[in-house]
Amino acid sequence: DIQMTQSPSSLPASLGDRVTITCRASQDIGNYLRWFQQKPGKSPRLMIYGATNLAAGVPSRFSGSRSGSDYSLTISSLESEDMADYYCLQSKESPFTFGSGTKLEIK
Amino acid sequence: EVQLMETGGGLVQPGKSLKLTCATSGFTFSTAWMNWVRQSPEKGLEWIARIKPKSTNYATEYAESVKGRFTISRDDSKSSIYLQMNSLKEEDTATYYCTGNYFDYWGQGVMVTVSS
Fold first, then answer.
1. Rounded CA separation B106/B38 (Å)
2. What pLDDT, on a 0 to 100 scale, did the predictor assign at position B101?
3. Chain A interface test: which of B1, B45, B46, B47 (most A C-beta within 10 Å)
4. pLDDT, tens digit, for every residue of A27-65?
5. Which residues in chain B are contacts of A97 at CB distance < 8 A?
6. pLDDT under 70 in chain B at which residues?
7. Residue pairs between chains A and B whose CB atoms are closer than 8 Å
């Protein structure tokens, strides 16, 4: 199975900060990488697909990138509504696997 | 507007069965690849099953943790998918989500608690 190692597990940050969350894939997944945002009591929301493509309705301060087997989600200037949990997902092959999550919280 | 709604959750004893339903609207269901994903504090988000469209003869895939116990199915005439869960274990306790169009659309989730 493909393992997705996500870091950090917790990320205290201030409003206006630039923040980056990373997932490392244990095998080649190409660009079959999605990022989700989840707020308390809500279902996950697709933010990024194909590693770098912004999903519909997602603010442009969010971006995705890839460097080898490392995939990153960056928020260029943190806003209060961005405080949430974030997860990566590899959809290259079954079993599809999620990262363990990053809790983004106000410092 | 895309909508997915899961129903059928609840409290069930270990070894018993439960069937979840996900009713959808707002997208082309008949060609959509549909999944069930569950979430628990212990395991986080876990993909458990997928069903492909009629063009693939409704091919299915399962996570090892549920293979042989859970069955995913779909009814294109009702734009719905189902998850038949048999021989339930306490570790199946989770919020269950259906997702559509690969993982682009998500329902609100339904809670399943397996406990004696």
1. 11
2. 81
3. B45
4. 999 999 999 999 999 999 999 999 999 999 999 999 999
5. 47
6. none
7. 43
